[in-house]
Each structure stands twice: as C-alpha cells, then as structure tokens.
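Form 12-C: Joint structure prediction
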Amino acid sequence: MKKLHIILLFVLFPTLVLSQEDDDIKWYLNLPEVTIYAERPIKEIGTQQTRLDSIVLSENIALSVADVLTFNSPIFVKNYGRATLSTVAFRGTSASHTQVSWNGMKINNPMLGMTDFSMIPSYFIDDAVLLHGTSSVNETGGGLGGSVKLSTKPAQADGFGLQYIQGVGSFKTFDEFLRLTYGNMHWQTSTRVVYSSSPNDYKYRNHDKKENIYDENMNIIGQYYPIERNRSGAFKDFHFLQEAYYDNKRGDRFGLNAWYINSNRELAMLTVDYGDDTEFENRQRENTFRTVMSWDHLSENWKLASKGGYIHTDMAYDYKRDLGNGIMANMTQSRSEINTFFGQVESDYYMGKKWLFTANVTAHQHFVESRDKSILQQDGNKAIVGYRKGRIELSNSISAKWRPIDRLGMSLVIREEMFGNEWTPIIPAFFIDGVISKKGDVVVKASVSRNFRFPSLNDLYFMPGGNPDLKKENGWTYDAGLSFAIGKEKVYQLSASANWFESFINDWIIWLPTPKGFFSPDNIKDVHAYGIEMKGDLDVALSKDWHLTLNGTLSWTPSINEGEPRSPADQSVGKQLPYIPEYSSTVMGRLSWKTWSFLYKWCYYSERYTMSSNDVTLTGKLPQYFMSNISLEKTLSCKWADFSIKGAINNLFNEEYLSVLSRPMPGINFEVFLGITPKWGE
Amino acid sequence: MKIIKLFLKSPSHRVTKSPRKLGDLATWSLGVFLLLSLTSCMEWEYGLEESFDASGEGLFICNEGNFQYGNATLSYYDPETKVVENEVFYRANAMKLGDVAQSMIIRDGIGWVVVNNSHVVFAIDINTFKEVGRITNLTSPRYIHFVSDEKAYVTQIWDNRIFIVNPKRYEITGYIDVPNMTMESGSTEQMVQYGKYVYVNCWSYQNRILKIDTETDEVVDELVVGIQPTSLVMDCNNKLWTVTDGGYAGSPYGHEAPSLYRIDAGTFTIEKQFEFKFGDAPSEVQLNGTKDKLYWINDDIWEMDVTAEHVPVRPFLPYNGTIYYGLTVCPRTGDVYIADAIDYVQQGMIYRYSKERELLDEFYVGIIPGAFCWK
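Section 2 - Result
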C-alpha cells in the first residue's frame, strides 16, 4: 500500500518532476488541429450527442460497454453486480427507453425491450455515439430517453497484423483478447476474440445478515456480520467477431460483420440468502449470433446504403437444488429463442452545400418463443407455459436539413413506425442550431420531438401476466443547449456544453404483482423528466512528452411521477422515480509521459430511492457513492514487436457500495494486462 | 457542479503563456482529482440495535418487499394505542429480514417468520423482536405449522417435499414426499390440523388438498378441488374452507371460474361449492376469533357466516379503486384489517375497520404488506 502511495504521488503531481527540467525546453505539442470544433456536419444539425472514441473504448480488455458508459457518459448504468445484468438509462427514463443499435441493426432484446450492456465487450466496439433525447429520432423511434449507436470500423491495416492481450486479475479473473487483421487497398479484414472467466467470488462484509453463535441448548450467545464471498457468481463469456470490408475505390463499399457470443453465467445469491450455495444452482446461458451485411454507394452528391442482418439468440435459465443425494433437481427451466431478420435502405442527397435530404426504411422481423419447461401435470396431461409470437417492426423516416448561412442550421425529421399492424402517428422532430460567436465557437442548439415506444413482446404476451391491451408509451421531448470550444493549435483544446431537456412521457409501462401471484404490466404513470446535462473536455499538451486529457460530465435528472394516485394512500405522485439518481457525474483524466500513461476514472451517483414514495428506510437505503479506478500503462517497443503492460486498480478506496439492493459489489481489486503487437512486414 | 465549473474556469490564456503555467494547470487539475478521491465516502450505519418491549397484545404485519431486492420488513401494530412500529426486525437485530416475507405464526412466545426467497425461517422473541434462532437452507418456504414442540412442517414452492423441522434445534429433520408432484410444479401452502391430520392446499398449477398423517409424516389422502386453491382455514364446526383463483387466461393448466369450497375435515369430502364469476380472483380466506364468520378478498372485502348457503349479495367493504393484498380479522375484537399495497414499491397502507364497517385507523407499514399474525 505504501508503494502505491508513492506511485500516486508522482503520478498526481507530475509538475514536481517537470519543474526540475530545463527551462529552455521547447514545447512540442502532439495534438490534432483545433479547427475540428468549427466543423458542424449538416447531418448533425441541432443534435445532442456524446461520442466515445476508440481510446476510451479500448482502454482495457476486461471492460464492457456498461463499464465504459459508467465512467464516460452522463447516462445512468444500473449494475446488478460484477459481470451481471447492466442496463443503461438516459435522463431519468428506464432501460427499455434506450434504443441500442449495432452497425445499424437494433439489438434491444425484443422480448424485454432492453439491452444488457455487460454482454458487449468494449474491445468489440470501435465507435459509440450516444444520442440524447430528441436526437435519437434521427436514427430510430422508441428512444424516449435516447439511443446508443455502436459500430465497428475497418482496422485500416496494411498487410497482416496481430494483437494479443492477456489480463489476470483478482478473483481468479482471466481475460484474453486476440485480434488478427489484414488489409490492402481494397480489403480490410479483422477477427477478434475475447474470452473472460472468473469464479467471481470476491469477499465482502455482509451487513445485511448476521451469523449466530449458539450454545449447546441452541441459545444465541453471539452474533457477527460475516465476511462472505460473492456466492454463485462465476462467469465464462466468449465473444468472436469477424469483419470483412471491401472498397472498390469507385464509390462502393461492402461490409460483413458477424458476432457470436457464448455466455455462461451464474446468478449471484443475494446478501440475504440463507441457502447453501453448494446445494443451489442459478445459471443463465446465452448463445447469440448477430450478423450485418452492408453496401454503401457514394457519389459526389448522394449516398445510397443498404443493410441486411440476422440475429439469433437462445437463452436458458435454470434454477436447481440438490435433493440431498447429489442430484440437482430442476426447480425452474426457462428457455427463450429469438430470431430477428433485419433490412435497411437509406439514402442521403446533398443539394448544394445548403441542403441535405435523407430517407430511411428499416424493418426488423422478430420470431420469439418463450417457454417455462416446468411440466404441469393434470390428469396425466403435460403442458408447457410460454408463448410463441412474431412481430414485424417498421421504422421509416425522411428528413430535410438546411443550412442557409454558415451560422444557422435547421433540420426537420418525420418518422413513422409500425409494430405488428399498429402504426404510430407521425413522429416529428425539429432541430435548430446557430453560431452565436465564431470566437470561441459558441453554438446554441434546440430541438423538439414527439416519440412513441411500443410494448415489448413480454409486455404483451408473457405467460403468465402479459397484457395484450397495453397502449404505446408516448411523449414529447424538448432540448436546448449551449456549447463552446476554444483552443490553440497544438497547444490545448477546451470545449464544454450545457444542455437543458424536458420530457413528458405518458402511459409508462410498469409490471406489478397481481392477486393471482404473478406480475402483469400496465400503463400506469405519466412521468415528467427534466434536467441539465453538462460536459467538459480539456486536452493539453504540457510539453514535448507530457499530455493531459480531462473529460467530465454532470447530470441533474429529476424524473417525476405525475400520474394519478393509485389509491388515496398513494404517496408517489410528485416524487422521483425509484432507482434513478437525481445527480450523477463522471471524471476521467489521462496523463501521459513518453511511453507511460496514467488514467484516473471517477464517477458519482447521488442517492437512489428504492420506493416510489421517496421514503428512505433502513432496509431500502442506497446511499450516494463515489467510485475511483486508476491504471498505469507502459508501452515498449523493439524491432519486431510493440509491448504493453498495464496495471489497474478498481474501487481504489475499497468502498462498500451498492447499485441495486442486496447485490454486493466488489471492493478494491487489481488487474494486470500484457499485450503484444508484432511488427509484421515492417 | 463544482467539477465542471473548475474545468470551465481553466484560464486558457494562461495555458499558452508559459511552460510553467501549463504545469500549474496540470497540477491544479490533478489536485482536483485528488480532492475527488478523498471525498469518496459512503453513508452506511451498521450495528445499531434498538430495544423493544412490546409486551401487550399486538399485530405483526409481514411486508413482502420486492422480489429479489431483499427489502422485506416486519411491522408491529398496537391496536390499543394505535401506534405502529415499522422495520422492527431490522431495528432490533441490525440486519435485514430478507427477501419476500411470506408468513408468520406464533407459538409459545416465539414468532416464526417465513422468508421465502431467503430460504430461511426466523424465530424471534415477540416482545423484543430479537432473533432467537433460524432454520436455513429451505428450498422456497411458504408456511410453517407446528405439530409438536419438536416437530413442525414447512411447506414449499418449487419443491415436491414438505420439510420436517425440529424447531428446538433449528434443524431440517426430514421430508414428506408429495405424490404426483414434481420439483418444477411443486407447491404446498397453508396448513390446518384436525386431530392427528394436517391438511395442506396445493396452489401453483395444482388443484388439491392433501391430508397428512402427523404420526407417519405421510400423505394419506388428497381431495381434488378447483384450479389453484389459494388458502385454507378451519371453522368452529371443523369445516375446512379453501378458495381457488381459477388459474389465468391462456394457462395450459386451465382457466375456470373460481370457487369457495367447504370441506368436512372428518370425512374429507366437499360439502359445498360456492362458484364465483369467471375472471374473478378471490383470495385470502380468513376467519374471525370465534371462527364462525368467513372473510375473503374478491376486489371487495366479503363476509359470510360459516353456515350460510349463499354468498352474500353485497360486500362487507366495497372496492375502493385499489387492489387489496392482505386481510385479517382481530380474534378479540372482530376488527377487520385490510392491506393495500398501492403501487407495490412504496409503503403499503393498512386500513382497520370495526365489525360495523367503521374506519377506525389507517397506518403505513412496509412494501407489499401481505400477511398478518396476531400476538
């Protein structure tokens, strides 16, 4: 620990080292041109977006996109534990209000409506864009909170390339990453493999239960909070991604992406579980295959793009217990299978420099089957509980974007969606932006949109409880923001933005218990979500060798239930929705010196209520938490290969924290990564 | 807010002036990091145990909490003073009750709280609420019934066995295998005893009342009723009463009009079937203290003499726009207590009515109040 402090001292106060250098040093700054701030692509008029670049996404092979979003974006990540379900929500909405696409294909689970971001390794994503609120209407409908666009890109390889990274961490965690690339003038191919495994049995002091000490007459003579391990939390995740791109250099580009996931995860026991983990098994297995083929035709004024894709997912959930004879008997066996076919055609047409017209037609055809394999017996008959359904989902849009003068842009998007045989009304979205001051690149943006979200297939048909009479969730969202960017070429860049938003969502769908013992969804709440999101980015070249990057976000997101009281006793009206923090913030700082790089990540979530009435009780308390992670990386180079070695410390201050009640999170933990990139052909 | 302000205030003109200033900025920015780090602290309080002495008569309320969130609680209400104490288990023991508090009974001054998804039954002192012991590693316990001081049965869901436990040693001592039931479709629920026989209703995807011989710990008979009998009581005439929920639309097990059944415990035969409308969802059959009046929930609250031949035309208390989730009748005064879970993610409300339907009190308890236990 002492050593750690010494390292920290040097890393956190680099100027102690700097000050001893020669004053005559000439500042050499390795920064991109600052003029990028002045570029406001006509396609992005008025949009509020957060882009996560490849540096952030490829920081660490052990990270999922959920981990990256936690420390680099203003959206809320609800994490049920390490390597466990992680969902994200924008601006006080729910996880199913976030639409997620991968290379243009929607990957929200059509049964649940949400996406598990813990199942997306950040090393498989080359570009991630968060479209906040109204801005999501540019891409898709249903993103009442926003949307997340995940993409892969050609590796820009020249000849053969290989990268291999191995990570070893606490709790016997092993991460392997391999990437093979090949590229020439026309072809780019890439093969990526990630394998992560861990018993995930981290220790923690369980303050939710006590161990009893009995005397011989079974009287309790002592109690203590036990130090327990995270029980039944092991995971083995395998991901394989194959990409191939062909560019004929005459305006045609072809792409193929195929991603296979094999996941085998136990579901960790609650802190209040008194079962013997050796006698229970609670496991979820998933096989998913996603593929997207694309063709883009580019000419001087227009672009035509088409995509086709397919998703297959089969999931198995098993809950078993030992009958005392070593045989694990099934208590629950749930199975689900999803097949989705995807097609998309879109076109952009530039009429001069002032107009851009776009049109997009997207279709997803889902076929799903959900079944609980519990065998019901009645009069000798056997039956299975579940449902089998198909649904076509169409989303069509046209837009006109106009920039009459350099300083002003306007965009109108008209979208319409059809799920099953039900159409939404017209979904309009209007965007405007303008440069208030060229000095400082001060830009003001505003937008407004309507939006709808159809119920998921489980909402409608799950057995038991599905409610086929559910209405679409619907709402209006308003955005307005201000941003600036200043900088000096090769010296520094500083940019920041503040954005106000306001959303009204009606007929919010919530699952509630029924008198018959199961849950059923209903359109219950009208929600008013509003607030402010702020971002700041600073990039400074401190010297020839020193480089500092700082990024920060801050969100204030009240999300208020404005529905009718369910009964005279209802105390939830006018209150913040449960499990949504009112404040959140992130900071990431990277300091690099020659071949060394130090990274500090910090995030904060304010207290989350666990009750709709916002009462805080002893058993329902989720206090605010701060999380700090650091890592230090050194790259080495020799004639035939580049090497990297990285050490990371997560939960630096060994904080005891919870994202969800009764789900323990790991304390301080460590990881070491070794990477090699041979220099073939150089 | 502060963090971003610090970024925005970073004076850009300084940055470009001199190398030393650049260094200053770096130091300053990194100082902010350090500050942020040092502010990281959680707000947890542990180990504070509260002393209670609830020596009078009272009512325990089991608040299920939300499944998988471990926020079940126990409330205690004194009908005399109309004072309610919430989270008494946590406050007395400085630990959580667990996940889904299903039911509670009292025997010889000890309360036995069955916590379904925590796989545990807690034994507590009913005056101090302090834990005195626990039975662990149950499959998915629902109810406990005492056969003797040293033998009790614990019913389960997702298990085709009823667990036999020794409450003195807090040990599982054996199992009663239920015939024609698999682990997956296993469901045994409430228990009542008549002589040496214990009767059990089988609810989830079941349609039976079991008869268990407490001397041999074996199922000796069963009686088929309608789909999914939800509860079971025995009146002053030794008649068993159960009500079915009729299943649900689309269930492969069937969906039918639910019924209330009167069963003679001695002959173990159905004496009377009161059929409800198709689509109704009756539940929570309860008795008053003299066991001559029957109560249940079917949107409204209903009351009926145990000798009645017809279900009353009008309810005891009409539906008030919310879903009633629990019901009990004070064995001493006959006051009727109704639990309203409201939206199931906030403190539920208990309404207390007199026999004359007069609202006497109302008080908030924990999340999803589902079961009651009279001291």
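Section 3 - Comments
Chain B touches chain A through 112 residues (CB under 8 Å). Chain B is about 10% helix and 45% strand.
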